[in-house]
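A protein record pairs a chain with a discrete description of its three-dimensional fold. The following entry can be read in just this way:
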Amino acid sequence: MKKSNFAQMLLVLLAMTVLLAYDFFPTFNNLISISKPLLITLIIIIVLVSIFSNRIQKEDSKEILRYQIITLLYLFMLIVSFTILGGTSQVGITLRNPVLWIVIVLSVFEIFQQKKKLKLET
């Protein structure tokens, strides 16, 4: 993995962590004041940048696949951890939300498709 790609991945994961922590624990509002619409917009922008930056770059398919798996697992574990720690999402990102599960299933499906494509290339 190139250093710039690794740094980009860490930056996106760090930003997502901070934004989700702010969403699950609104007492962070005392530290940083972010409105709910801005919070939702930032999360959507980060996810879209993460998705499209990998698709635009002409990189190794293994690297993109690895990035998608790491991001999906990290976000899922983050949501589970914040829920266990007693946080409640202010915008509805919960394990009971069917939209979250649809996104996870679609992401896993795409990962399997890319893995299958990668096997065919090699």
Notes: The chain has a mean pLDDT of 80.
